[in-house]
Amino acid sequence: MPLILGVDPGSRKMGYGIINATGSRLNYVASGVVRIPQPLLVADCLAERLKVIFDSLSEIIEQYQPQEFAIENVFMAKSAGSALKLGQARGAAIVAAVNKELPVSEYEARKVKQAVVGTGAADKLQVQHMVCTLLKLSKAPAEDAADALAVAICHANSQQNLIRMAGARRYRRGRTV
To answer: Which residues are catalytic?
Structure first.
């Protein structure tokens, strides 16, 4: 399996994580957080924030050359305005990926947590801990970077399951044979 870029979107900061998935083996490549500069936050200039997200993600894609892109779906935020801004930030990230001809996969937050921790109700500390364990990291990445790595891990697991299912000869009583 190729390099996977996972993204935890946000209009103030966006986490990204890149892993290499070979079969069931997951290897950490890079991660970080794209932070919107303070003047743009104070001015509340959403268009400029979206440009920062697009440009930053385009640079990351150019630098690492991932072959897959996975992003967390919008969840219901505290307010409709927050949800709209988050949706626009996701849009900027998705356009950066599509612009580089990457296939885009989207995952619900609960599915990401379930894939990494085993429960969809996991908190951020549990996600950070399991990301460290699964990727054999010596220290925990920032929360947003850990969430992005979790999205990439979820995508790798989903793709691996699809490959396994495609190789199954028969399907009987809820399992492959």
So the answer is: 8, 72, 144
